[in-house]
Every structure is written in structure tokens, then in C-alpha cells.
Specification:
The complex is a heterodimer of chains A (about 120) and B (about 120). With about 120 residues, chain A is mostly beta strands. In chain A, strands 2, 4, 5, 9, 10 and 11 form a 6-stranded mixed sheet that branches. Chain A is built from no helices and 11 strands. With about 120 residues, chain B is an all-beta fold. In chain B, about 0% of the residues lie in helices and about 50% in strands. The termini of chain B are far apart. The model of chain B has no long low-confidence stretch (mean pLDDT about 90). The chains are: A mainly beta (about 120), B mainly beta (about 120). Chains A and B meet through strand 5, strand 9 and strand 10 of A and strand 4, strand 5, strand 9 and strand 10 of B.
């Protein structure tokens, strides 16, 4: 069975500082991994996804994530935080076995950006 | 840009009452999903739907739950007799294609917050 664990329910950074949101996965098969972001009062928006091509995945808004099989990690980074990055971020892995591959989510990490 | 919409944004109901949560998926999408998030917990998969039938469902999706695509644009989730533990944020999602296709990304709506008293 697949699962993801997000370390840190709340991360606070200063504007311009590095953003690092941690996600570790568990999967018995090569995983498909995703990062979603939720801004206040909005739906979950896809930031980026890993589907076994390049291990470094670039997403929207300057975010990227690196798939590290040896560490079973898929951490999300952004070199320089912006106030508009304040949101909740969810890591997810696609479930195997079903015909449509439902997503299995982590608990989410709320990112605060201080001026 | 096309988006998934959900109504209402917040629903308050009494225990034992029926509720219907509504979603309008993106118009050319063929696969539909419901997820929920109980406060402080993970987003959990409930059900997926394709070609007018359920494709997969989780253990949470018991006989109290049902889904329907009544008119070709709406996708609804019905809870027949709500329980206190059904209080959660319910997210609808849709995708153009199923797993493995290049257009299988799931697009989510803003959610409906259901409060059962």
C-alpha cells in the first residue's frame, strides 16, 4: 500500500528565504507523486508531479521537487519565498490497483511567509 | 481557465438528515472523484466515477453515501442520514482521462464544509 508523510504541520519562513517542505513516501511499486497547494477559500491546485521521468521536477510559481528513491523523499523547494506563497501544501501519491488511481494525501503543511 | 465548482460552500445540518453536495466538473472531463478532509486529518479518497458508474470506492463510502451525475453537468454526493463524524470538508475533483494518460491530472474544487450538529 502507498502512503505519504509530511513532516511539519506548520512552516514559517521570511520573505526571500528558502522554502523547504518535506514529504516522504512509502510504496511497494515505483510511485507517482504530486504536490498540491491550497490557497484560502480555493480548491487544491496541482503544483507539480513526478511520473518516473526526470527526478527533478519543476512546477508552477518557481517551485520544484526532487525525487530521491534512496531516501524515499519528494521534498518541495523554492529558492526565495514570496508573500503570495502563503498557503497549505499537500503531498500525494497515486494509489495502484484501481482503474483510476485515486490519490493518497499527506496531512498537509501550512506555510507562513513573514515580511 | 476552466475550474471545478462546488455548492454550497458551507452546509449545516442536523444529525440524521440527508444532504446533497453538488459539483460541476470541468466540461470535457470524464472522470470524477470525491474526497473528504476531517479537520486536522488527511484528505481521504471516497469514490471515483466514470461512464455513469462507480469505478472505485473506499471503506468510508458505505451504504449511506451515493453519487450521481443527474444531468450531464452536475456530479452529486448524497449522504442519506448524516452522522456527527461526517463533519468534514468535501472536495470534488475531475480529470480528463484516467490513470496513466498524459491528461490524468485531477483538478479540485474549493470544497464544501459540512457541519453535522
Amino acid at each position: 500500500a502507498q502512503s505519504v508523510t509530511q513532516l511539519g504541520s506548520h512552516v514559517s519562513v521570511s520573505e526571500g528565504a528558502l522554502v523547504l517542505l518535506r514529504c516522504n513516501y512509502s510504496s511497494s511499486v515505483p510511485p507517482y507523486l504530486f504536490w498540491y497547494v491550497q490557497y484560502p477559500n480555493q480548491g487544491l491546485q496541482l503544483l507539480l508531479k513526478y511520473t518516473s521521468a526526470a527526478t527533478l521536477v519543476k512546477g508552477i510559481n518557481g517551485f520544484e521537487a526532487e525525487f530521491k528513491k534512496s531516501e524515499t523523499s519528494f521534498h518541495l523547494t523554492k529558492p526565495s519565498a514570496h508573500m503570495s506563497d502563503a498557503a497549505e501544501y499537500f503531498c500525494a501519491v497515486r494509489s495502484y490497483g484501481g482503474s483510476q488511481g485515486n490519490l493518497i494525501f499527506g496531512k498537509g503543511t501550512k506555510l507562513s511567509v513573514k515580511p | 481557465e476552466p475550474e471545478v465548482t462546488q455548492t454550497p460552500s458551507h452546509q449545516v445540518t442536523q444529525m440524521g438528515q440527508e444532504v446533497i453536495l453538488r459539483c460541476v466538473p470541468i466540461s470535457n472531463h470524464l472522470y470524477f472523484y470525491w474526497y473528504r478532509q476531517i479537520l486536522g486529518q488527511k484528505v481521504e479518497f471516497l469514490v471515483s466515477f466514470y461512464n455513469n458508474e462507480i469505478s472505485e470506492k473506499s471503506e468510508i463510502f458505505d451504504d449511506q453515501f451515493s453519487v450521481e451525475r443527474p444531468d450531464g453537468s452536475n456530479f452529486t454526493l448524497k449522504i442519506r442520514s448524516t452522522k456527527l463524524e461526517d463533519s468534514a470538508m468535501y472536495f470534488c475533483a475531475s480529470s480528463e482521462a484516467g490513470q496513466g494518460a498524459s491528461t490524468d491530472t485531477q483538478y479540485f474544487g474549493p470544497g464544501t464544509r459540512l457541519t453535522v450538529l
